[in-house]
Design goal:
Number of helices: 5
Structural class: alpha/beta
Largest sheet: 7 strands, parallel
Shape: globular
Strand order of the largest sheet: 3-2-1-4-5-6-9
Strand content: 15-25%
Distance between the termini: 31 Å
Radius of gyration: 17 Å
Protein backbone atom coordinates (compact mmCIF):
# COMPACT_ATOMS: atom_id res chain seq x y z
CA UNK A 1 0.00 0.00 0.00
CA UNK A 2 0.99 3.60 -0.55
CA UNK A 3 -0.57 6.87 0.60
CA UNK A 4 -0.38 10.44 -0.67
CA UNK A 5 -1.50 13.34 1.50
CA UNK A 6 -1.92 16.59 -0.42
CA UNK A 7 -3.28 14.84 -3.50
CA UNK A 8 -5.23 17.88 -4.67
CA UNK A 9 -2.18 19.90 -5.75
CA UNK A 10 -0.21 19.57 -8.96
CA UNK A 11 2.66 17.61 -7.43
CA UNK A 12 0.32 15.54 -5.28
CA UNK A 13 -1.75 14.55 -8.30
CA UNK A 14 1.41 13.53 -10.15
CA UNK A 15 2.51 11.37 -7.20
CA UNK A 16 -0.86 9.62 -7.13
CA UNK A 17 -0.73 8.94 -10.87
CA UNK A 18 2.82 7.60 -10.72
CA UNK A 19 2.20 5.36 -7.72
CA UNK A 20 -1.03 3.99 -9.18
CA UNK A 21 1.02 2.93 -12.22
CA UNK A 22 3.59 1.20 -10.00
CA UNK A 23 2.84 -2.52 -9.73
CA UNK A 24 4.54 -2.68 -6.33
CA UNK A 25 1.57 -0.96 -4.72
CA UNK A 26 -1.73 -2.82 -4.71
CA UNK A 27 -3.57 0.34 -3.67
CA UNK A 28 -2.80 4.02 -3.33
CA UNK A 29 -4.77 5.96 -0.72
CA UNK A 30 -5.03 9.64 -1.68
CA UNK A 31 -6.18 12.52 0.51
CA UNK A 32 -6.73 16.26 0.17
CA UNK A 33 -8.63 18.96 2.01
CA UNK A 34 -11.36 19.02 -0.60
CA UNK A 35 -11.48 15.31 -1.42
CA UNK A 36 -12.73 14.36 -4.86
CA UNK A 37 -12.92 11.41 -7.23
CA UNK A 38 -10.98 8.56 -5.58
CA UNK A 39 -9.55 11.08 -3.10
CA UNK A 40 -10.49 11.08 0.59
CA UNK A 41 -10.87 14.16 2.75
CA UNK A 42 -8.11 15.13 5.16
CA UNK A 43 -7.22 18.50 6.65
CA UNK A 44 -3.58 18.08 7.73
CA UNK A 45 -3.89 20.98 10.18
CA UNK A 46 -6.72 19.20 12.05
CA UNK A 47 -5.67 16.12 14.04
CA UNK A 48 -9.25 14.85 14.25
CA UNK A 49 -9.54 15.03 10.45
CA UNK A 50 -6.22 13.19 10.08
CA UNK A 51 -7.33 10.44 12.48
CA UNK A 52 -10.65 9.97 10.69
CA UNK A 53 -8.94 9.67 7.30
CA UNK A 54 -6.20 7.30 8.48
CA UNK A 55 -8.76 5.05 10.17
CA UNK A 56 -9.86 3.95 6.71
CA UNK A 57 -6.37 2.95 5.56
CA UNK A 58 -5.34 -0.67 5.81
CA UNK A 59 -1.85 -1.74 6.89
CA UNK A 60 0.87 -2.09 5.87
CA UNK A 61 1.73 1.22 4.21
CA UNK A 62 5.13 0.89 2.57
CA UNK A 63 5.31 4.39 1.11
CA UNK A 64 3.84 7.59 2.56
CA UNK A 65 4.20 10.83 0.60
CA UNK A 66 3.18 14.14 2.21
CA UNK A 67 3.04 17.01 -0.29
CA UNK A 68 1.18 19.56 1.80
CA UNK A 69 2.60 23.05 2.15
CA UNK A 70 1.88 26.73 1.61
CA UNK A 71 3.99 29.50 0.09
CA UNK A 72 1.16 31.90 -0.66
CA UNK A 73 -2.61 31.91 -0.75
CA UNK A 74 -5.52 34.32 -0.41
CA UNK A 75 -4.52 35.07 3.18
CA UNK A 76 -0.77 35.69 2.93
CA UNK A 77 2.22 36.05 0.65
CA UNK A 78 5.96 35.63 1.29
CA UNK A 79 7.49 38.49 3.26
CA UNK A 80 9.85 40.60 1.14
CA UNK A 81 11.10 42.54 4.16
CA UNK A 82 11.16 42.48 7.93
CA UNK A 83 8.56 45.24 7.75
CA UNK A 84 6.00 42.67 6.57
CA UNK A 85 6.56 40.33 9.51
CA UNK A 86 3.40 39.43 11.40
CA UNK A 87 3.14 36.95 14.26
CA UNK A 88 -0.13 35.40 13.15
CA UNK A 89 1.02 34.74 9.60
CA UNK A 90 4.35 33.34 10.82
CA UNK A 91 2.47 30.98 13.13
CA UNK A 92 0.24 29.94 10.23
CA UNK A 93 3.27 29.16 8.08
CA UNK A 94 4.65 26.89 10.80
CA UNK A 95 1.26 25.25 11.37
CA UNK A 96 0.91 24.34 7.69
CA UNK A 97 4.52 23.73 6.63
CA UNK A 98 6.11 22.27 9.76
CA UNK A 99 3.55 20.88 12.19
CA UNK A 100 0.96 19.42 9.80
CA UNK A 101 3.32 16.98 8.03
CA UNK A 102 4.56 15.64 11.36
CA UNK A 103 1.02 15.08 12.61
CA UNK A 104 0.29 13.14 9.43
CA UNK A 105 3.38 10.99 9.96
CA UNK A 106 2.42 10.40 13.59
CA UNK A 107 -1.02 9.14 12.55
CA UNK A 108 0.36 6.82 9.88
CA UNK A 109 3.22 5.31 11.91
CA UNK A 110 1.16 2.44 13.37
CA UNK A 111 0.56 1.33 9.76
CA UNK A 112 4.24 1.47 8.72
CA UNK A 113 5.94 -1.97 8.83
CA UNK A 114 8.79 -2.39 11.31
CA UNK A 115 10.48 -5.43 9.79
CA UNK A 116 10.82 -4.48 6.12
CA UNK A 117 11.72 -1.51 3.94
CA UNK A 118 9.32 1.41 3.98
CA UNK A 119 9.60 5.07 3.04
CA UNK A 120 8.18 8.33 4.32
CA UNK A 121 8.85 11.45 2.29
CA UNK A 122 7.67 15.02 2.82
CA UNK A 123 8.09 17.90 0.40
CA UNK A 124 10.51 20.52 1.62
CA UNK A 125 12.36 23.24 -0.31
CA UNK A 126 15.94 24.31 -0.92
CA UNK A 127 15.12 27.70 0.58
CA UNK A 128 14.75 25.87 3.90
CA UNK A 129 18.53 25.44 3.96
CA UNK A 130 20.04 27.83 6.52
CA UNK A 131 23.59 27.67 5.16
CA UNK A 132 22.40 28.18 1.56
CA UNK A 133 20.40 31.32 2.33
CA UNK A 134 22.03 34.07 0.28
CA UNK A 135 19.19 36.54 -0.30
CA UNK A 136 17.05 36.66 2.84
CA UNK A 137 13.34 37.40 2.65
CA UNK A 138 10.51 34.86 2.66
CA UNK A 139 11.01 34.61 6.41
CA UNK A 140 8.05 32.41 7.30
CA UNK A 141 8.42 30.00 4.39
CA UNK A 142 12.18 29.61 4.82
CA UNK A 143 11.96 29.17 8.58
CA UNK A 144 9.01 26.76 8.50
CA UNK A 145 10.73 24.56 5.90
CA UNK A 146 13.95 24.63 7.95
CA UNK A 147 11.88 23.55 10.95
CA UNK A 148 10.32 20.76 8.88
CA UNK A 149 13.79 19.52 7.92
CA UNK A 150 14.82 19.46 11.58
CA UNK A 151 11.64 17.66 12.61
CA UNK A 152 12.22 14.99 9.94
CA UNK A 153 15.79 14.55 11.14
CA UNK A 154 14.66 14.29 14.74
CA UNK A 155 11.87 11.77 14.21
CA UNK A 156 14.05 9.71 11.85
CA UNK A 157 16.62 9.22 14.61
CA UNK A 158 13.98 7.88 16.96
CA UNK A 159 12.51 5.63 14.27
CA UNK A 160 15.84 3.96 13.53
CA UNK A 161 15.30 2.08 16.78
CA UNK A 162 11.74 0.89 16.13
CA UNK A 163 11.81 0.81 12.30
CA UNK A 164 15.38 -0.07 11.27
CA UNK A 165 14.46 -0.47 7.59
CA UNK A 166 12.56 2.81 7.32
CA UNK A 167 13.74 5.74 5.20
CA UNK A 168 12.24 9.03 6.42
CA UNK A 169 13.38 12.02 4.39
CA UNK A 170 12.48 15.42 2.99
CA UNK A 171 12.56 16.02 -0.77
CA UNK A 172 13.12 19.21 -2.77
CA UNK A 173 11.13 19.03 -6.02
CA UNK A 174 12.88 21.85 -7.88
CA UNK A 175 10.86 24.68 -9.39
CA UNK A 176 7.68 23.03 -10.62
CA UNK A 177 5.12 24.63 -12.91
CA UNK A 178 2.18 24.76 -10.50
CA UNK A 179 -0.02 27.43 -9.00
CA UNK A 180 2.35 27.69 -6.04
CA UNK A 181 5.32 28.74 -8.14
CA UNK A 182 3.43 30.65 -10.84
CA UNK A 183 3.97 34.16 -9.39
CA UNK A 184 7.71 33.49 -8.95
CA UNK A 185 8.72 31.92 -12.26
CA UNK A 186 10.21 35.05 -13.80
CA UNK A 187 13.89 34.46 -14.45
CA UNK A 188 13.65 30.68 -14.12
CA UNK A 189 15.38 29.04 -17.10
CA UNK A 190 13.09 26.90 -19.23
CA UNK A 191 15.13 23.79 -18.49
CA UNK A 192 14.82 24.44 -14.74
CA UNK A 193 11.02 24.78 -14.71
CA UNK A 194 9.75 21.23 -14.35
CA UNK A 195 6.39 19.69 -15.07
CA UNK A 196 4.86 17.98 -12.03
CA UNK A 197 5.20 14.60 -13.75
CA UNK A 198 8.92 15.08 -14.40
CA UNK A 199 9.64 16.33 -10.87
CA UNK A 200 7.77 13.40 -9.34
CA UNK A 201 9.51 10.92 -11.64
CA UNK A 202 12.89 12.24 -10.47
CA UNK A 203 11.92 12.34 -6.77
CA UNK A 204 10.62 8.77 -6.88
CA UNK A 205 13.87 7.67 -8.51
CA UNK A 206 15.78 9.36 -5.68
CA UNK A 207 13.57 7.71 -3.07
CA UNK A 208 14.03 4.28 -4.66
CA UNK A 209 17.80 4.73 -4.52
CA UNK A 210 18.09 5.76 -0.87
CA UNK A 211 19.15 3.40 1.89
CA UNK A 212 18.14 3.34 5.57
CA UNK A 213 21.56 4.80 6.39
CA UNK A 214 20.43 8.00 4.62
CA UNK A 215 17.28 8.42 6.68
CA UNK A 216 16.74 11.92 8.05
CA UNK A 217 18.31 13.67 5.09
CA UNK A 218 17.02 16.31 2.69
CA UNK A 219 17.50 15.40 -0.96
CA UNK A 220 16.86 17.36 -4.16
CA UNK A 221 15.17 16.01 -7.26
CA UNK A 222 18.57 15.17 -8.77
CA UNK A 223 19.69 13.12 -5.77
CA UNK A 224 22.04 15.70 -4.28
CA UNK A 225 21.89 16.36 -0.55
CA UNK A 226 20.48 19.77 0.38
CA UNK A 227 22.69 21.38 3.04
CA UNK A 228 21.27 22.10 6.47
Amino acid sequence: MAAVVGAGGGIGQAFVAALRNDARFARVHAFSRGGGDHIGIMDPTDEASIATAVAGVEAPVHRLIVTTGMLHDAVQTPEKSWRALDGATLARSFAINSIAPLMVIKAFLPLIPKDERAEIAVLSARVGSISDNRTGGWHGYRASKAALNQLIKTISIELTRSHPHLICVALHPGTVDTGMSAPFQRGVAADKLFTPAYSVERMLAVLDGLTPEQTGGVFAWDGTAVPA
